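Quick one:
INPUT:
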């Protein structure tokens, strides 16, 4: 059976994956690989949110992008993961403030919008796993997991911490980041790192689910 080897690994905890409700925000270079990992691990109730379409520049790092040029990402991914639920919306600050996150066990943040990330932290930090910058790097062994206040080596993460402090936010939540120094100023990217971020996000989600 499809999930037999996952069951061998997790034992009775596998049933917790089937009952978990996951909200995945952003299905690009990080989120797309996270979605694939979640699906292959036996998580059935996944809702993805994205507004973008696939173009040729996505093909170096984004799942299925070479097959769906010009298509909406959420609709294209539905063809490969038919059990997922899709929301074709841009995840910005306004959307975060208006959306009801209560029904989800975990919120996985694979977006780039700074204001939306800040709003997510303030609104649902208890169930949030957030990705920082995966671009501009080539070493997947430098990817780390910590709480927001212990993250380091990432200018984007530094900006998030600074803005959260300005807002008086002092709670902890899980972040994924790279301590590798950025190689370029432009947003060059390498699938070895972006996919690692996605796999680590999936792993953190699974560990959180089975720990309950």
């Amino acid at each position: 059976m499809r999930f037999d080897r996952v069951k061998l690994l997790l034992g009775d905890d596998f049933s917790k994956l089937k009952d978990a409700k996951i909200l995945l925000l952003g299905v690009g270079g990080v989120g797309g690989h996270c979605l694939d990992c979640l699906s292959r691990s036996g998580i059935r109730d996944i809702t993805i949110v994205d507004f973008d379409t696939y173009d040729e520049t996505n093909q170096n790092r984004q799942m299925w992008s070479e097959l769906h040029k010009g298509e909406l990402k959420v609709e294209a991914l539905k063809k490969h993961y038919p059990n997922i639920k899709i929301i074709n919306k841009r995840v910005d600050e306004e959307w975060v403030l208006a959306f009801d996150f209560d029904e989800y066990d975990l919120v996985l943040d694979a977006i780039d919008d700074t204001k939306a990330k800040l709003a997510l932290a303030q609104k649902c930090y208890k169930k949030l796993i957030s990705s920082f910058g995966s671009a501009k790097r080539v070493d997947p062994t430098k990817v780390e997991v910590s709480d927001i206040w212990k993250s380091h080596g990432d200018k984007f993460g530094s900006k998030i911490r600074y803005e959260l402090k300005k807002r008086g936010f002092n709670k902890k939540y899980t972040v994924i980041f790279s301590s590798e120094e950025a190689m370029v100023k432009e947003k060059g990217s390498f699938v070895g790192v972006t996919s690692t971020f996605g796999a680590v996000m999936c792993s953190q989600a699974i560990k959180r689910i089975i720990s309950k």
